[in-house]
Q: What sequence folds into this?
C-alpha cells in the first residue's frame, strides 16, 4: 500500500494519520523508500522555516543543523514509539577512511547525509548491505550483516547473527531466531523473553486546551492569593526562561506549556 510523499509536510501528515487507532490496526510495518529523499525534504522544510537557502546558512547554533536533526529524528522516532516496525532504505556509496594509525581503506556506507545517518544508526536494530555475489557462476543477492574488516557499515543488536545470509525475508527471520536462541543458551535464558514489547503511547497535546487551562489556573491562583503572582512567574521563568510569558507560547511549545500547567495545578493542592 504505497503512499507517495512529495514534501516533508506530506510526511508529517502521514504521521498524523498513522497515530490514529483505526489506522494502527491496519499496519505493523512502515517502509521508507528512500531515507535519502526524506532527509532532503526535511532539510528543505527547515530552510523554509528559517528563511534560508541552505541548511548550513543557519549554522549549528542558529538552529539550522540542530533543528533539522531534531525534526528528522522526532518524526521517525515517533513511528517506532507507536509500535511500527520501520524499515529504511538507502543507496550505498564508497568513502575513503583515513584512520589515525594504519593504512586508509574504502568503506561502503549509506549515501545519507551524515546527520540523518547518525539518527537512523542510533535507532536501528539491524543495518545490512544488500548486494550481488557470484556463487557457482550465478549472481546471488545476499545481505551482509557483519563485516570483519570494517569495509562495510553494518550493525546488529544481536551479537550472534550470521555475517551474511541470502537476501530473503525467510532467511533473515531464521538468522534472527538462531542468533536469539544462541544468546539465550549462553545466558541460561536470563535476558530472553517471549513477552512482546509494550507500545509507548505518544502524548498528544492540544494547544488551545492547554492555554485555556493555564488562564483558568492563573485566575484561580490570583483570586485565592495575589501573592501567587511571584510563584507563577518563578514557574514560567524556570521552564521558559527568565522574562518569558506563557501567553506567548506557540503551538511548538506545547510540551513546556503542559509542564507549566502541571506545576500550577500543584500550587492549588
A:
Amino acid at each position: 500500500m504505497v503512499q507517495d510523499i512529495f514534501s516533508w509536510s506530506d510526511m508529517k501528515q502521514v504521521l498524523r494519520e498513522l497515530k490514529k487507532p483505526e489506522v494502527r490496526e491496519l499496519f505493523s510495518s512502515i517502509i521508507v523508500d528512500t531515507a535519502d529523499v526524506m532527509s532532503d525534504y526535511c532539510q528543505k522544510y527547515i530552510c523554509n522555516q528559517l528563511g534560508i537557502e541552505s541548511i548550513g546558512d543557519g549554522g549549528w547554533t542558529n538552529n539550522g543543523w540542530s533543528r533539522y536533526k531534531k525534526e528528522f529524528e522526532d518524526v521517525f522516532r515517533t513511528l517506532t514509539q507507536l509500535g511500527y516496525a520501520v524499515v529504511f532504505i538507502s543507496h550505498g556509496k564508497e568513502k575513503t577512511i583515513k584512520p589515525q594509525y594504519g593504512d586508509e581503506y574504502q568503506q561502503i556506507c549509506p549515501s545519507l547525509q551524515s546527520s540523518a545517518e547518525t539518527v537512523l544508526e542510533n535507532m536501528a536494530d539491524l543495518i545490512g548491505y544488500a548486494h550481488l555475489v557470484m556463487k557457482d557462476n550465478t549472481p546471488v543477492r545476499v545481505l551482509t550483516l557483519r563485516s570483519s574488516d570494517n569495509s562495510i557499515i553494518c550493525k546488529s543488536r544481536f551479537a550472534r547473527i550470521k555475517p551474511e545470509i541470502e537476501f530473503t525475508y525467510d532467511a533473515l527471520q531464521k538468522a534472527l531466531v538462531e542468533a536469539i536462541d544462541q544468546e539465550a543458551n549462553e545466558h541460561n535464558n536470563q535476558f530472553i523473553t517471549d513477552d512482546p514489547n509494550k507500545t509507548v503511547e505518544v502524548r498528544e497535546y492540544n494547544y488551545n486546551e492547554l492555554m485555556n487551562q493555564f488562564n483558568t489556573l492563573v485566575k484561580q491562583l490570583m483570586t485565592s492569593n495575589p501573592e501567587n503572582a511571584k510563584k507563577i512567574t518563578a514557574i514560567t521563568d524556570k521552564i521558559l526562561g527568565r522574562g518569558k510569558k506563557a501567553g506567548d507560547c506557540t503551538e511548538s511549545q506545547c510540551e513546556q506549556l503542559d509542564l507549566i500547567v502541571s506545576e500550577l495545578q500543584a500550587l492549588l493542592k
Summary: The first strand starts at residue 29 and ends at 33.
